[in-house]
Input
Amino acid sequence: MNKNSPLNMTVQIDSSKPVMVTGATGYVAGYIVKRLLEEGLTVHATVRDPENKQKLAHLDDLAAELPGNIHYFKADLLDPEAFFSPMKDCELVFHTASPFTSDIKDPQRELIDPALRGTENVLRTASKTPSVKRVVDTSSCAAIYSDATECALGPDGMLTEDMWNTSSSLNYQPYSFSKVLAERRAWELHGEQNQWELITINPSLVMGPPLNPSHVTSDSFMIMKQLVDGTAKMGAPKLGMGIVDVRDVAEAHYRAGFTPEAHGRYITSGHNTNFLDLGKSLLNKYGDKYPLPKRALPKWLVMLVGPMMNKQLTREFIRKNVDVEWKADTSKIKRELNMKFRPLKETMEDMMQALVEAGEV
Output
């Protein structure tokens, strides 16, 4: 089945029915919850510990001030029975829960198993829950490519929704490997039934202000801290990447859920950029307060010192990503979901401001 061809049916979601969001305390998921609450919807939010009031406080605050309602459900991604209760009566499911970190010791246990088995458990539950009409799955551009050099393989040198990551593995870019395995499995499970439609949102690197700055675990925040803590004061590599604002990613999920004709995969990326330009975008507002990078580190120097500074910066990774332009075709999401993306400067400044106010940088 072609993931990007419209099906013969459109999906109308009844907004009076509850909507399920997995991993609701996550970086992206929090903004999806916020968007649903703004529309007056009832959210069934799965979390690890509904009793952890500190971790849920920001969602409780949103629910108190917005017209929608939120109900919490305890759910472990690896428990195949965990999602039946929160999914009951839902027509729309947002599956966002999956680890995003490069600081790992056992990639199979810490990345692959939760991503793959979590996807299986959520989608198998959907197939056993008659009310479910559509599942919007948070995938990643990492399921489309492994290294920036692969952009050149696409039409006009750009990544497209028809491309798949075939070069990452358990030993090379295991996070990317977890995302491609999980999304491929999602499409397999979708193909085994005809009750619910599947849409995947494939963001590039997600940046922007967290709803809960005191509980930030995503690699996005590690990247921001490296830009401002002096690590890159002598310069930063021109590491090719795509960037998208967390608020835009949430909006893309919302539109994918409630646009009847939405279908297939959606590359969700606001900017074709690089690590140095991320730092430069903060110079105007924060350049006199933080040791931000102003120049590019030459590739040979990154090759020399990179592997010593970060185990993820292998020479193979540096060769395929530093001084390599990253480009993705976002025409599908702009055309079909009418998405517009925030300026990079706004994303980076808002993120930095939130972390400063929270005392995190």
Remarks:
- The first strand starts at residue 19 and ends at 21.
- Residues 19-356 form a domain with the Rossmann fold fold (CATH 3.40.50.720).
- The chain has one domain: 19-356.
- Residues 1-8 have pLDDT under 50 and may be disordered.
